[in-house]
Amino acid sequence: MPVDDSALDLLFRDARTPARWTGEPVSEETLRTLYDLLKMAPTSGNCSPGRFVFLTTQDAKERLRPALSEGNVEKALAAPVVVIVAHDPLFFDQLSYLNPEPDLRSWFAADVGLSEETAFRNGSLQGAYLILAARALGLDALPMSGFDGALVEDTFLASDGWRANFLICLGHGEPLDTSRAARLQFDEACRLL
Q: Which fold has domain 5-189?
């Protein structure tokens, strides 16, 4: 059954990207619930390459500062949580656990291009699912690019070999103007064939 209008409003129609944060903290329990929701969303072959680093302390966010473009510094440092949405290029090492298809690992281990494309695409999907899960839990989300990916990887991801994709600031946004920037209409963005 489809969800009701109030759920659609929460997830899409009334949701806005915050400009400022209230300062209300986000608990570790909420972040664990967030992950438990997003991990249930589909990825191709259940490959689940998304990896998430939750920066919850001011010290961790300060370590991110040098990698941020100038326009993102204040937004990120003020957010209660900044999530580094990454992917594991060696996601296929988990496939024997995640997918019963025999020898699926070898498809990706033998083809670096295929494995990188699969990891990036499905890790991006998982980052989008994180935004929806955050909204479903009453959090606001501010996705951002505008950072030095290599520096983020060197600072936070090198020990695991993960690759940075984008950032998401999480928290409770201050009430803001409810106007919304323009969106393309169906006939401008879609084709029915």
A: NADH Oxidase (3.40.109)
